[in-house]
Amino acid sequence: MNFADAWTQKDTNPVITGGSAPGRPHELGSSRMDQTAFLLGFTIMSLGSLAIYVTGKKTHPSGHHTLLHASVPFIAATAYLAMAFGIGTLFKLDGSITYLARYLDWSVTTPILLSSLVLLAFHERGRTGEVGGHLTAIIVLDVLMIVTGLVSSLAGPSLAKWVWYGWSCVAFLGVLYLLWGPLRTLAMSRGAALGAAYNKNVAFLTIIWFLYPIVFLIGPEGMKIIADPASVWAILIMDVVAKVVYAFYAASNLDKALAEHGDERGHRS
Asked: C-alpha dihedral over 150, 153, 156, 161, to 10 degrees?
């Protein structure tokens, strides 16, 4: 069976929960638009992962950051491939669609991105328990943010949907507090260069992450102001920026900071 046949089969026999598969012409057209976005996402993420690894530093002290950032779009590419085949795509009674692969992707990739920021904040210092404590706290809040967002997506139009959405936003605020509070203080204590790099990376990621709950709110999983294809394309763009563009931006800031940090240590010695 070739890919076109597989996609045709997905249209007629989708994974369904509590509803029927889209069958009207405009719904089939939307499915084709989504498929194009998913295949484009798979291609960009795959090539992005390779490019990040090939161009990144492989040695201490930034080699582990290269590995972390290269793994993020590779995981995302896997999710986009699953969505292209309709795996884990749930059509609901209210006409909205929940892409389980997307939430699975986020529940793995966002902790990796946060881990890189935590490691930058400590940068070869800090006791094991201290580093582990910050990592555990921020990852737990982050995963709760994703899981409660999924619950909100799965809930029908009701008060419960917005309660779960609000709780997801509370977890997001907890992540932001850790990033901009104690972790930022730690990063600044490592020197001006590393502190500046941390601030730039956190600011970039904070801005792009703020867009996700907004798209959820106005999209088909929320208030249904925009249709599914518009939501899919918007999230694709945000994913590329947050996973691929950010990786190159963060690597550039880190390399510059490490060079300046070495100079600062040399002047102090």
From this structure: 80
Cα–Cα dist 219/154, whole Å: 14
Q: Cβ distance 155 to 161 under 8 Å?
A: yes
Tokens of 218: 């106005």
CA angle (57, 59, 63) in 5-degree steps: 60
CA–CA dist 56, 170 (Å, integer): 35
- Domain boundaries, given as residue ranges, for the chain: 3-268
pTM over 0.90: no
CA distance 175 to 172: 5
- Secondary structure class of 99 (helix, strand, coil): strand
The set of residues, in sequence order, having a beta carbon less than 8 Å from that of 210 and lying 6+ positions away, is: none
CATH architecture of 3-268: Up-down Bundle (1.20)
Compute the radius of gyration of the chain from its Cα atoms: 20
Residues 6 or more apart whose CB falls under 8 angstroms from that of 85 comprise 6, 7, 10
- Tens of pLDDT, residues 193-231: 999 999 999 999 999 999 999 999 999 999 999 999 999
Instruction: Please count the CA atoms within 13 angstroms of the CA of 239 that sit on its side-chain side.
Output: 30
Task: Write the DSSP assignment of 30-78 as a string of letters.
Answer: HHHHHHHHHHHHHHHHHHHHHHHHHHS--STTTHHHHHHHHHHHHHHHH
Asked if 48 contacts 244 with a C-beta cutoff of 8 angstroms, the reply is yes
Q: Tell me how far apart the alpha carbons of residues 202 and 177 are, in angstroms, rounded to a whole number.
A: 11
